[in-house]
Each structure stands twice: as structure tokens, then as C-alpha cells.
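Comment thread on ticket #2218

A.B. wrote:
> Attaching the input chain for the structure job we discussed in standup.
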Amino acid sequence: MSRTPSTTAQDFVPFATAALDFHRALNLPGGPLVTTRAELDALHSHLVSLHGLLDAHSARTGQLVPTEGDQLRAARTRIWQVAEHLHAAYHAAPRPDSGQVPEPEACRTGLPEGAPELSICQRHQRTAHLVRRRTTPSDLHTPFTGLVRR
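C.D. wrote:
> Ran it. Output below, let me know if you need it in another format.
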């Protein structure tokens, strides 16, 4: 197996990075002082996609280069932790229509804001199911996930 991508494959990650940089440069200087729930939902979606990408890379790479695979798995775990915090921030943010902060139980209904606008809870629960299958609780709660293998 080659470690270099084929010359025909498109690498879209730089475009995603540029889009985030562009969004920040355009929207944050003159935008609202508080992050909207819709933006938290979009950021969460982005992180869950990044988590999936790192999961795929760590599974493939770990079989060939165990040390690199360990580092990718550690990065995947950290991305999930960030997604957890974004999900919590979403639930701490007031609703745009009423200003009320939903109860934590609202997440269990799947769509606390109603379909189809925001789907953060469904996405979070689907990814959490995958995370529970591929990581241990100690992996998720340890302050250091960087295994050293030489």
C-alpha cells in the first residue's frame, strides 16, 4: 500500500479549512456578540465529519504504522471531546425565539429545536454510539491521550 495519495484524488480538506477561515474573517468581526445556536450546530457538524475522517485514517494507518495510528486515534478522541463541549454549549445557549435555555432532557427527544432546522442532538447521539464502540471510557477521560510507542 502506498502512503502517498494518487494523483487523481482531490484533496478537499484545504478547501474546508479555507472556508472556515473565510467564515471567521467575514462573520465574526461584525457579527453578533454571542454565537448563535445555528452556528454551534454547523460547527458541531463540521467536527463530527472531521471525527469520521480521523477515524477512517486511524483505522487504515494503524494497521501499517502503529505509532502514527496511535497519534491519529488520540487526535480523533480529542476531536470528539471538542464536539462534546460544542454540544454542551449549544444546550447552554438561549433559544432564538424565546430566550429560554432548554432542559438537558430536551436532547433525548432528538430535535429540541424541531425538525428540520437543527439536528445536533441526533448527530451527536449517532456519533456517540460509534465513539462508545471504538474508545474506552478511560480514553475519553484521561488528560493525556498521546501514547508513546517506539
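A.B. wrote:
> Thanks. Noting for the ticket: Residues 37-64 form the longest helix (28 residues).
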